[in-house]
Amino acid sequence: MALRGHCFSVEESMTKDELIARLRSLGEQLNRDV
User: Fold this and answer.
1) What is the pLDDT along the chain (34 residues), one digit of tens a residue?
2) What is the C-alpha separation between 15 and 27, in angstroms, rounded?
3) How far apart are CA 24 and CA 31, in angstroms?
4) Is-above-0.70 flag for pTM?
5) Contact 4, 11 (CB under 8 A)
6) Distance between CA 27 and CA 23 in Å, rounded?
């Protein structure tokens, strides 16, 4: 829950493109770990 609230505050301060890039890099890291 706390993490979710943090994500929303971060989302507000970033542009849509930055958010997409962040999610994409996160997804790549997860794929590497699996």
Assistant:
1) 455 555 556 556 668 888 889 999 999 998 887 7
2) 18
3) 11
4) no
5) no
6) 6
